[in-house]
Amino acid sequence: MEDFIRDMPKVELHLHIEGSLEPELMFELAKRNNIRLPYSSVEEARNAYQFTDLQSFLDIYYQGANVLQNQQDFFDLTWAYLLRCQQDNVRHTEIFFDPQTHTQRNIPFDVVINGITDALKKGEEELGISSQLIMSFLRHLSEQDAFETLEQAQPHLDKIVGVGLDSSEVGHPPEKFCRVFAASRQLGLKCVAHAGEEGPPDNIRSAINDLKAERIDHGVRCTSDRKLVDDLAKMKMPLTICPLSNIKLRVFSSMEQHNILFLLKKGLCVTINSDDPAFFGGYMTDNFIAVHKALNLTRHQLVQCTINAINASFIEAERKEALL
Ligand code: HPA
Ligand code: ZN
């Protein structure tokens, strides 16, 4: 079964490129850019990746991103992720990047996006991996800051398929970004949002109704509102679920407790993704294997998750046909 899972063609819809920064590359970039890390070794960094909730992770994740300084660094980060995609037979990936994490440190928007997109282009040409880029707003920052970020993205709209919303969910509900999402849609961008990861089911409703999100990132906390579960099934609203992330950030106490199988059986458009694989202990294959082992998902159910991901992707029609 593990061989079957490894060889299965996959589509990833929820991956933060900054969350694919492995400690080895973090140390290499720290050395290259003369930056001091709070860890003395790769091993010490890995040992520090013990989280109690989303915020305890975000603090370490934003700190790790400090080593990313030059266009080449963003290229190397993205290229390393694409090589892992190749190993896991990921054929298409839709990647989040957090420009504010970098522009706040005075790294120009262009440096970030050009480094990432150069690697994505090479990935398409040399590895046959297609991709899309989603610009994610940090929800702990202001609406004004998000508008400034959208402004900076204007010269690069051809490189971005949509906008997302990530960072600390509790206390920062989707409706805070209603206007900037409306402005993004006016520019032809698609909308997705993290909701119902740590926050309440109402955040999922707000992401759909106020932000017009076409996919919900995580969404697993919908189950405390049975009507919402039924509505999500009826709407065929895709959920980009990240099983290993949910365990690491203690959304569920163990994989056996995860509700992914329940949601699949309820007919929701469930997909499996890796979120921040360098921090959560696994890429796509690892996530598929973990849910299979704990919850006994059948081959048919695992394949269904991939078909759901193809259908929920923002791939152009021709490539979608080729993947299905
Ligand atoms: N949730 C919210 N914000 C994030 C995440 C996540 O899982 N990963 C990176 N930023
Ligand atoms: Zn995420």
Q: Gist?
A:
Its EC number is 3.5.4.2. The chain is an alpha/beta fold and 324 residues long.
* N-to-C SSE string, H for helix and E for strand: HEHHHHEHHEHEHEHEHEHHEHHHH
Report mean pLDDT, rounded to a whole number.
Answer: 97
| Main structural class | alpha/beta
CATH class: Alpha Beta
In order across it, which strands form the biggest sheet? Answer: 1-2-3-4-5-6-7-8
Percent strand equals: 5-15%
Q: Can you name the CATH architecture?
A: Alpha-Beta Barrel
Poorly predicted parts: none
Question: What's the shape?
Answer: globular
The ligands found in this model are: hypoxanthine, zinc ion
Question: Descriptors for this entry?
Answer:
eight-stranded parallel β-sheet; binds hypoxanthine; 50% helix; binds zinc ion; single chain; alpha/beta; TIM Barrel; 324 residues
What does this structure look like?
The protein has 324 residues and is of the alpha/beta class. The protein has one domain: Alpha-Beta Barrel (TIM Barrel), CATH 3.20.20. Helices cover 50% and strands 15% of the residues. The protein contains 17 helices and eight strands. An eight-stranded parallel β-sheet has the order 1-2-3-4-5-6-7-8. Helix 5 runs parallel beside helix 7. The chain starts with a helix and ends with a helix. The chain binds hypoxanthine and zinc ion. Catalyzes the hydrolytic deamination of adenine to hypoxanthine. Plays an important role in the purine salvage pathway and in nitrogen catabolism. Keywords: Hydrolase, Metal-binding, Nucleotide metabolism, Zinc. One of its GO terms (cellular component) is cytosol.
